[in-house]
Amino acid sequence: MPVITIASPKGGSGKSTTSVILGTEMAHAGAEVTLLDCDPNRSITLWASRSALPPRMAVLSHVSESEIVRTIKQQDADGRIVIVDLEGVASRLVSRAISQADLVLTPMRATTLDATIGVRALALIAEEEEALGRSIRHAVVFTMTRAIKSKQHTAIEASLKGQGVDVIVPPLMERAAFSALFEFGGDLRSIPAQGRMDGATENAAAFAQEVYKRLVEASQ
Ligand SMILES: Nc1ncnc2c1ncn2[C@@H]1O[C@H](COP(=O)(O)OP(=O)(O)O)[C@@H](O)[C@H]1O
Ligand SMILES: [Mg+2]
């Protein structure tokens, strides 16, 4: 089963939020999902402690540099979708998690500063590809975007696409429901309503579907 690594050296770019949205959507769609919390800040572990985990979901906390490869392989062999949430750094742990991935997602706010730092994840992926002698499927997902696309967003997206970078559409919009996941735990269906829930649920489902498409392509 696929291994999805969520990596960006930029803190606050939406990695943990992307991990939880993707994990809960895939579990809702019927997959068995394990979230690996590899960030010492433990966002995923905190999320998991807020309420009972949704059906078909598991969380492994405190996964360190020495255990990461073994842990990923074990979960993968058990037929589970593995999603790895990482700290916003470049480290050996991050490189190892990238090396095991079928797909690396780099969440990024669509601002010049965030994109400049975020694209360093692409260099890390290229280094692993070189070391492994294989290509690693990867994509950028814009996070916390507004309903009306900024000029900066349009320019950054065009620049990435011009460089051949896969950009996932739809982006993850800025939504109270997405940040509330960490307040209440659980998934979009279990948390108390925050704003327009159907909009958030549709956005999350469409995003997860696009990720799933790439996993199918990567396995062919
Ligand atoms: N799509 C979104 N809509 C609303 N808030 C978001 C969204 N994505 C992230 N956030 C908020 O932004 C902050 C940073 O997000 P987080 O996922 O923790 O980033 P990272 O894991 O990269 O450090 C958190 O407070 C989170 O709740
Ligand atoms: Mg995080």
Quick overview:
This protein is α/β, with parallel strands linked by helices. 47% of the residues lie in helices and 17% in strands.
Give the SSE map.
Layout (H helix, E strand, L loop, with lengths): L2 E4 L8 H14 L4 E6 L4 H8 L6 E4 L7 H10 L3 E6 L5 H8 L3 E7 L2 H7 L1 H13 L4 E9 L5 H12 L9 E2 L2 H9 L12 H23 L1
Parallel strand pairs: 1-4, 1-5, 2-3, 2-4, 5-6, 6-7
Helix pairs in contact: 1-9, 2-8, 4-6
Overview of this structure, please?
With 220 residues, the protein is of the alpha/beta class. The chain has one domain: Rossmann fold (3-Layer(aba) Sandwich), CATH 3.40.50.300. The chain contains 9 helices and 7 strands, in the order E-H-E-H-E-H-E-H-E-H-H-E-H-E-H-H. The chain has a 7-stranded parallel beta sheet with strand order 3-2-4-1-5-6-7, sandwiched between helices. Helix 1 crosses helix 9. The longest helix has 23 residues, at 197-219. The model has no long low-confidence stretch (mean pLDDT 96). It binds adenosine-5'-diphosphate and magnesium ion (MG). Magnesium ion (MG) is lined by residues 15-16, 39, 43, 85. Adenosine-5'-diphosphate is lined by residues 11-17, 43, 88, 143-144, 172, 174-175, 178-179, 182.
List keywords for this structure.
globular, 7 strands, 17% strand, binds magnesium ion, seven-stranded parallel β-sheet, 220 residues, 9 helices, Rossmann fold, alpha/beta, binds adenosine-5'-diphosphate
